[in-house]
Write a structure and sequence with these properties.
By secondary structure, this protein is of the alpha/beta class. The chain contains 13 helices and 18 strands.
Length: 531
């Protein structure tokens, strides 16, 4: 199969790029690949909203830039922050024009929320399902375009590069070029080849590396893992953001998110004793940046010997709460919690990867013809910690920039027609799925126990030793059995876990989301860890 533009992932980043490209080139083909349904993405589960300077009488670009830089703890690329913040409002206006609806007040003005780390109210939202609403609007637009092909239930196995033509490709190879991908078509259970001129990776995050995560089951770091195998540059993978307030339900995965906007509207964190504890950790109290709040909760849980803390919403108006957070209200009610009468039990959960595939200001990776945007990319915006509600903004801004750069070069590119088909010689059907499922559980336990909110050199060393064994066992399965989505996801998560641990070992300091008890001071040398 040949396509002009190949988009891997159907979240807000991939759909925005595909929509713009299809409208620009009605005579060219755009193919979107997703491993489940088109709307099953991290975007769908984004509750809080999208940050943007909207009320210029009270807010300003400089304030949003400063808030982002403070949250990033010295590692943001200031030029990229300025680009995203200043270009962001125009991208928000575009998705409103596509049909996305954001909440308004009684005067008909957009109701702007405030979240941790923000100095002003600048969060546009649609109830507590903002991402779902934005995804809906984009899919409605895409369905009307005949030159977009959406391939559901297709799992991307690997990128096609010179390596598949018999050339030696290493990290020092300067002209690595992406020609397309191998996919496992889950409809036919066959490995197929798709050749493309431009490939965009918008494959989302890697929250499933941890036992407790707000990410859907598809968030297995596939994009990061496959580009690392292709010798692409990866950076800052040690910065995994744990959302402070996931609903505590033992054994339930993924965890239901209690959006930060609830605290923005006045909810208070309390420990087992009913004490409001955040003032002990930061002057911004419950609206401190996520890394600070997550560590504070982690410390309170350890100090009091509990598995969770509480979110107190009892003093908030019931009518307003239900209007703004209807899904949270109904979810809590479904498990016997009336938020107007009882505290909500919450605990941190893996939520977002601030590092990823290293890109430049146009979304270009270190591999030719390969772009990346969304959570799988490391653009330089987030640094050591993402500011709340900057992720959807970043995805749209960089999808637009990838589109602008791609349309300049597409007509100078051609297909590669000499790529080999997938070789299944010497493989057999897997006999025991338990080998995969048990390794998956082991991986999540290793990462949760040793590479969580608080780390140490010893924990990281132990994690790496156990990951080495899982890697060897899984590679043996990969070489000898036919591929399945479960095996591919396990393999990808082991790669991602290795990158997280290795980045954490290289960072001999505590900064942002990476907190190491053996290196609690910040280094005076600011650097990105590139792997």
């Amino acid at each position: 199969m040949q396509t002009d533009f190949l988009v891997i992932g159907s979240g807000i980043a991939g759909l925005t790029y595909a929509l713009k490209t299809a409208r620009q080139f009605p005579d060219k083909t755009i193919t979107i690949i997703t491993k489940t349904q088109a709307d099953e993405t991290n975007t769908k589960y984004a509750q809080g909203g999208i940050a943007g300077v909207w009320d210029e009488d009270r807010d300003s670009y400089s304030k949003h830039i400063e808030d982002t830089l403070i949250a990033g703890d010295g590692l943001c690329n200031k030029e990229i922050v300025e680009i995203v913040v200043t270009e962001g409002p125009e991208r928000i206006k575009e998705i409103i024009a596509y049909g996305a609806e954001f909440d308004k007040d009684e005067k008909g003005e957009y109701s702007l929320g405030k979240e941790g780390g923000h100095s002003e109210n600048r969060i546009l939202h649609h109830k507590d399902v903002t991402g779902m609403e934005m995804e809906r609007a984009l899919l409605d637009q895409l369905n009307a375009l005949p030159n977009i092909q959406l391939l559901n239930h297709c799992f991307v196995v690997d990128l096609l590069t010179q390596h598949h033509l018999g050339f030696l490709v290493t990290k020092s190879t300067l002209d690595i070029t992406c020609y397309g991908v191998y996919i496992l078509n889950l409809h036919t259970n066959q490995i197929e080849k798709i050749v493309a001129k431009i490939i965009l990776l918008a494959s989302g995050g890697c929250g499933q590396a941890y036992r407790t995560t707000t990410n859907p089951r598809i968030a297995t770091g596939d994009g990061v893992a496959m580009v690392y195998r292709a010798k692409c540059k990866i950076e800052n993978m040690e910065f995994i953001q744990f959302h402070p307030t996931a609903l505590f339900e033992p054994g339930v995965s993924p965890s239901f998110l209690i959006t930060e906007a609830v605290r923005g509207d006045g909810a208070i964190l309390r420990n087992k004793l009913g004490e409001a504890f955040m003032e002990k950790y930061d002057s911004r109290k419950d609206l401190a940046p996520r890394d600070i709040v997550a560590r504070a909760i982690d410390n309170e849980m350890k100090r009091t010997g509990t598995e969770h803390v509480y979110l107190d919403c009892k003093h908030m108006g019931k009518e307003k709460f239900i209007h703004h957070f209807p899904n949270i209200y109904e979810k809590c009610l479904s498990i016997g919690i009336d938020v107007m009468q009882q505290y909500i039990p919450v605990a941190p959960a893996a939520h977002y990867s601030c590092g990823g595939i290293k890109t430049d200001e146009w979304g270009r990776t270190s591999i030719k013809n390969l772009y990346a945007c969304g959570e799988c990319a490391s653009t330089g915006l987030h640094g050591a910690n993402r500011l709340a509600s900057n992720s959807l903004l970043e995805a749209m801004v960089f999808a637009h920039r990838c589109y602008l750069d791609g349309i300049q070069v597409i007509n100078s590119l051609s297909y590669s027609n000499s790529l080999p088909d997938w070789n299944t010689t010497g493989t057999s059907e897997p006999r025991e799925m338990i080998l995969i499922t048990q390794s998956f559980k082991e991986l999540q336990l290793i990462m949760s126990d040793y590479v969580g909110i608080v780390r140490s050199d010893k924990r990281l060393e132990r994690a790496m030793k156990r990951l080495d064994l899982l890697f060897e066992e899984t590679e043996e399965l990969y070489r000898t059995t036919k591929l399945s989505p479960q095996l591919c996801e396990l393999r990808n998560l082991i790669t991602v876990a290795y990158l997280i641990v290795k980045g954490a070992q290289f960072r001999r300091e505590s900064r942002g989301l990476h907190y190491n008890t053996d290196h609690q001071e910040k280094s005076s040398i600011l650097q990105n860890i590139i792997l």
